[in-house]
Amino acid sequence: MGVQERLTLEAVAEPTLLAAEHIHRYELAASLCPDLRVLDLCCGSGYGADILAAGAASVHGVDYDMATIDLAANTVGRAGSITFELADATAFLRQDLAGRFDAIVCFEGLEHLPDLEATLAELRRHAAAGIAVIASVPNSRGTGEENEFHLSDFGYTEARAAFEGFPGGLIVHQYLAEGSVIVVDGAGDFDARLHGLDRAEPPYANHFLLVAGVPADRLADAHRGRMQLAVAPNYNRFMKSLERANTQLRRRNNALTRSLLGKGDSAAPSYVKRTEERLAELAAREVEVEELRREIDHRDRRIRRLEDQLEDARAQAARTPTPRPSGAGARGLVAGVKRRLRG
Q1: Residue 153 in contact with residue 141, Cβ under 8 Å?
Q2: DSSP readout, 35-56?
Q3: How high is the mean pLDDT of the chain?
Q4: Strand intervals (E) in 77-196
Q5: Which residues are paired to 103 by β-bridges?
Q6: pTM higher than 0.90 for the full model?
Q7: What is the pLDDT of residue 159?
Q8: Can you tell me the distance from the alpha carbon of 194 to that of 176, in angstroms, rounded to the nearest whole number?
Q9: Residue 22's Cα: distance from chain center in Å?
Q10: Which of the 8 DSSP states describes residue 270?
């Protein structure tokens, strides 16, 4: 499956599950940072900074990619309370930030950083200085995700280890959940109740979030009713697209099978049988080739011995002073050697 390193402003606007989970995290952070000066670390395209700015006093986005920062500055950055800066995340954190920021938000960024331990140490330092820290990492190990852009892969154990040592730190879990919504035309807001929370399994959460330096009661209030129901209308469309993809894949597999086996064969069993027969045939030919190789070696050695004997016979004939005319002895010996070579 392909992966998307950065979520663009266009992708966030689409009614997809991917967009919903990203937006949900930033909406949670925004509710925890009212009237605060917020650092959006690893801000990407700036969609999160825009969400944070709805309630924050100011938002400063930092990212190391120049094209991304330029785009964010020329779109989201037009709002007066949002600024962006091109900088390395870890190097930026080494500064004294207590006088500039009240909260640091870092969503889906830690797994991309080359020096994770140094970054976590700086975040712990700022948390100890009184700056709230809200961060998230994906559960790559638990979900089996393979992302070429990740320099660190987190699972439940790795996330808990990374988030240890933050004063007042709480770990919360983000799940992609299913639900049912009944929509009545003209109706206003509705009541959302969560069921099955007792069966939630943290090791199988989709994302792990750290919330440090935020009162627990404020987090509980922010959590209440935060189920991302905007994805529900997209569910049937998504399932239909999967069904179409599976149908196309099945047709393609059938076409490949027919091209390999022919219409009269019975798919996989016939293919396996043919493969086994072919392997047996190749193994038998390898035995024949090995036998021929040994026979050729034997004949080569025999030819070399006869050639040596022929040279010896010529040398002996050259050393023996026999009256001519005939030279029959040497010629007879040479003729005998030649007959053996031809035989």
Answers
A1: yes
A2: T-EEEEET-TTSHHHHHHTTTS
A3: 83
A4: 82-86, 103-107, 132-138, 170-174
A5: 38, 132
A6: no
A7: 96
A8: 13
A9: 19
A10: H
Tens digit of each residue's pLDDT (9 = 90 or more) over 71-81: 999 999 876 78
**Are the beta carbons of 58 and 50 closer than 8 angstroms?**
no
Other beta carbons within 10 angstroms of residue 61's beta carbon come to: 29
Residue tagged 């605060």 (tokens): 36
Spatial separation of the C-alpha atoms in residues 223 and 217, rounded to whole Å: 10
Residue with tokens 């030819």: 303
Closest Cα to residue 194, out of 172, 227, 230? 227
C-alpha distance from residue 274 to each of 53, 178, 261, 267, 279 (Å): 66, 46, 9, 11, 9
Closest Cα to residue 337, out of 304, 313, 302, 301?
A: 313
Query: Which secondary-structure segment (H or E) carries 219?
Result: helix 216-223
Of the candidate ranges 145-159, 179-193, 203-217, 222-236, the one whose mean pLDDT is the lowest: 222-236
Q: In what order do the strands lie in the sheet with 37-41?
A: 82-86, 58-63, 37-41, 103-107, 132-138, 207-212, 170-174
Pairing assessment for the beta strands 132-138 and 207-212 based on DSSP bridges: antiparallel
Count CB atoms within 10 A of the CB of residue 339: 9
